[in-house]
């Protein structure tokens, strides 16, 4: 048998007091959560939680991002690609609405190719872009518009309207 290197246990049977009477309990210092974001602040600190808004200078070209989003959205609604490919491009609320919602008839019916026209961009506020385009199928034209917001250095669609 190997002896243990610990001292022998001495128990005299008295209870140990963890808190002395009349002495306040020590508490950890108050550490508040992340500060609320202000409208003028862009980017985020390392200790912030959740997505943080990005300014225009931190974002890629809005026209290219808008074209990609509108193409993926129209092809997804037409059934040519899985709607799941829209998930990283849209907010969670918008993606749920697209998944549960009805698809426009002009997207799902017909075999003529969908052609996305020129994408127009308007940036009303720093970090926000509104894009629109005309989608043609056969001899019919339909308007498509989206609102993109800069989040964590990339564009994310928060609203999509298909006419």
Describe this structure in words.
It is a single chain. With 163 residues, this protein is α+β, with helices and mostly antiparallel strands. It is 18% helix and 25% strand. It is built from 3 helices and 5 strands; from the N terminus they run H-H-H-E-E-E-E-E. Strands 1, 2, 3, 4 and 5 form a 5-stranded antiparallel beta sheet that branches. A hairpin with a 2-residue loop joins strand 3 and strand 4 (140-151).
What characteristics describe this protein?
single chain, 163 residues, alpha+beta, five-stranded antiparallel sheet, 3 helices, 25% strand
Secondary structure elements and their pairing?
Blueprint: H1 62-78, H2 92-100, H3 105-108, E1 114-116, E2 120-125, E3 128-137, E4 140-151, E5 154-162
Antiparallel strand pairs: 1-3, 2-3, 3-4, 4-5
Task: Summarize the model shown.
The chain has 163 residues and is an alpha+beta fold. It is built from three helices and five strands.
Mean pLDDT: 80
Q: Can you count the beta strands?
A: 5
First-to-last CA distance: 85 Å
Order of helices and strands: HHHEEEEE
Oligomer type: single chain
Shape: elongated
Task: List low-pLDDT spans.
Answer: none
What class do helices, strands and sheet pairing give? alpha+beta
**Largest sheet data:** 5 strands, antiparallel
The count of helical stretches stands at 3
Beta-strand portion reads 15-25%
- DSSP helix fraction: 10-25%
Give the C-alpha Rg: 29 Å
